[in-house]
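Predict structure. Chain length: 384.
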Amino acid sequence: MKNMKKIIAFARKETVTTVSFVLALISMLFVKPDAGYADYVHWSTISTLMCLITVMSGLKNLGVFKYLGRLLLSHRNHARSVILILVGLCFFLAPFITNDVALITFVPFTIFVLEYAGLKKYIIPTLALQTIAAHMGSMISPIGNPHNIYLYELMVEEGQTDAVGFIMKMLPFSIAAAALLILFVFVIARKNEAILKRKFDQSMNITGEKMAQILMYTLLFAVSLLPVFGVVKYYYVLPVVIITTLVFDRTNLFTTNYSLLLTFIFLFIVVGNLGRIDVINNTLTSIVSGKELIVSVLASQVISNAPASILLSGFSDRYFLLALGTDMGGLGTLIAAMANLISFKEYTEMKGAETGKYILQFTIINVIFLIPMLILAILIGESI
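Prediction complete.
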C-alpha cells in the first residue's frame, strides 16, 4: 500500500516522465527490445544534461542567483524598473543556467519582491513575462534548454553548424524578443507607481566552505561546456562532474531531481520504435517535411516542446527549424513547456492565488507574444 502511494505521488508530481514511460512501454509492444535499443538514446545529450542539472542545482542551493537578483533590485524605486529587472534576470541568465533553473530560482523571489513592495497586482503578468523571457533568452544558447542541447548535438553530428553558428542564427529572434519584452513591460506597468520602500536582506553569508563550493561549481560549469564546443568528448566530462560533486557536495548529488533524464530516455525509446514501424515513419515524415516550423510550434502546444523536439527529430533533419519552432512553441498553452508549469506551480502555492485568472492572463499574454515572433520566424527562419 505504501509503495503504491509513493508511485501515485511520483506520477502526479512527474506527469511528463510518467506519460513518457507509459508511451515507451506501449511502443515496446510493437517493437520488441533488442540490441538496436542502445542506439536510440542520444547519450551525449543525457550526459550534458546531467552535468548542467547537477551544477545548476548546486549553485542554486548556495543562493548565488537570488543574491544576484537582490543586488540588482537594491536601488529600484518604481514598478516598471523592478519588473524590468525581474524579467531581465530570466532573459539574460537562462542561456547559461537553463530556462527551468531560471524560473525555479526567480519566480518565488519575484512573488516575494512584488508582495513586499506593494505591487501584488503585477504578479500574474510579471510571471507570464518572466516565463516568456526564460524561453526567449534560453533559445540563443545551445545549452539554454534541454531540447536545444539535444537538437544542437544533432546539428553538430550532421555538420550543420557549430556553437557560434547556432548563436548567430538565433540572435535576430532573441533581439526581437528582448524588444518585445521591454514593450510589454512598459504597457503592463504604464502607471509606473512608486514601490513601498521596505528593506529586505540583500546580504549573502559566504563562509570559506561556501566560497570554495561556488568556485568548484563555476569551474564544473566551464568543464560541462567543453563537449558542447567540441573540445573533449562527453564521456570524459561526466565522470569529472559526478566524482567532484560526490567528494565535495554529496548531498546535492543525491537530492537533485534527475527525472528529466528519464523523460528523455523514455522519449528516445518511443521515437526509435516509431521509426522502425514503416507506416508510422512514412506518415510522420510526410507531415513534418517542409513544415518543421509550424508543426513543431503546434505539437508543442499539445505534448510540450521538449517531447515535441525529440519526436519530430526522428522524421526531419532540419534541426535548426525544429529548435526554433520548439523554442517558440514553449509560448502559448500552459502545457506547451515544462517551464510554464514551473511558474504556474509556484504561483498556486501563493496565499490568495487566483488560478483561473492566472491561466487566462498567462495564455493571452503568451499568444499575443507568440504571433509576431512566429511571423518573424516564418519570414526569415527558412533563409537562415
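Summary: The first helix runs from residue 2 to 13.
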